[in-house]
Amino acid sequence: MTTLASATDTLTRDALTVLQPGFPGTTAPDWLLRRLGEGLASVGLFGRNIASPEQLASLTAQLRAERDDVLVAIDEEGGDVTRLEVRTGSSFPGNHALGAVDDTELTRDVAAELGRRLAACGVNFNWAPSADVNSNPANPIIGVRSFGADPGLVARHTAAYVAGLQSAGVAACTKHFPGHGDTAVDSHLALPRIDADPAVLAERELTPFRAAIAAGTRAVMSAHILVSALDPDRPATLSRRILTDLLRGDLGYDGLIVTDGMEMRAVAAAYGMERGSVLAIAAGADAICVGGGLADDETVRRLRDALVAAVRTGELPEERLADAAQRVRSLARWSASAAPSAEGRAARADVGLLAARRALRLTGQDRFTPLTDAPFVAALTPVASIAVGDETPWGVAAELARLLPGTATGSFAGADAGTAALAAAGKRRIVAVVRDEHRHPWMATALDTLLAARPDTLVVEMGVPQAAPRGALHLATHGAARVCGRAAAEIIAGTR
Q1: Are 40 and 13 spatial neighbours (Cβ–Cβ below 8 Å)?
Q2: Tell me: the pLDDT tens digits for 104-155?
Q3: Which residues have CB under 8 Å from 456's CB, separation 6+?
Q4: Catalytically active residues, by annotation
Q5: Residue 6: its pLDDT value, please?
Q6: What angle do helix axes 297-313 and 318-337 make, rounded to 10 degrees?
Q7: DSSP secondary structure, 339-403, as one string
Q8: Which residue from 19, 32, 285, 462 puts its CA 20 to 30 A from 8's CA?
Q9: pTM score > 0.70 for this model?
């Protein structure tokens, strides 16, 4: 049953309602339950909150016992960015693999099955899909999270993903508006800047968001990026020109606008979380995402008080905060009443693996003979982005060990990665696994070393396959999800 503390005034309730905080642990702490009683309407989940589907279902039931219409949000893109399967790797390939297949029905089926699994655990709001057009090959944070570099392809798959996810009764949150693809800086660490002309932005960045809006996306997430042609002074999350004039006005979007994580340095370093949150709501955002890093009651209190104080001093119009809170409650009502459609129920449990198999691109298979002896898997491992995290396993070693018992593996990085991998491999056949070779000169050098000494080395690229294919066999998986590793291992071992 929904409860609200009677002593909590409307302004304070509204300030709590627009927050989407995280919390530590696999059960809800007392402070979070108390805040739900006082008006908090959303909770964000991360990998630290999830141990199993059964535990997650118990956790969401605990939250709904306090507030039955609570929005339970998660950052579950499938592919490289997974929270449901953070410790094992995802059962679903990510966007880049789906874009490589370019079958919108498949994308819709994958999103519907992912949504079905979220809904079964009590999650009703997903911070996905990414609608970013990955036009900059040097992009350190989007990459395989994007459907691709072609705006039309990204648009049709974004629309299909939104339709599939919402067919399961889970609200989609299309991100990162107005488009994070043409950046070379990670907004978790600093403020990226895009200097494209308005005509380029309209044709490239905005096309997928138009498609998402037409598909009925229930939410849109803002990007912490400076787009000089749209607003030369403020990042998108804090820009009225971008959130209100462009997204609401020009694009006609009427759903919920959510910020990216407000503790990210692209905003927090220059504005601080409290002032950044006030400016975001004033600019047109309706919900403040926080909790990927900071996840405690003190953070919630600070942000709540900053919003209340801004209203009382006149910096933030009270009606703007009230409108934002009402949009959150409106989505909560939709989520509480949304029922899976027939499409959602029809999705197949094995659709993720089938999609990963279809996404494989092979070079050199005409002269390749599958392995029969256990190889050595040399994982050339870059530093994981904050969005992906370093908890989730990746690669092909575990799947190859299942198919070829005795498979050995090692992780290598840096200037001597190639020579170290050669020494560790001994006489075994080498399978070199890379992730975005084109972005890491040390990785390319390591491959040079391996292939010069051992031309029969197989290469598995699990990032964006931008570098030229090489090796006795080159497999591009278009992502590092567990199912992508399995699909590659099946080819290497000849079981498919």
Answers
A1: no
A2: 999 999 999 999 999 999 999 999 999 999 999 999 989 999 999 999 999 9
A3: 429, 430, 472
A4: 188, 260
A5: 38
A6: 140
A7: ---HHHHH--TTHHHHHHHHH-EEESGGG-----S--EEEEE-PPPPTTT-SSS--SSHHHHHHH
A8: 285
A9: yes
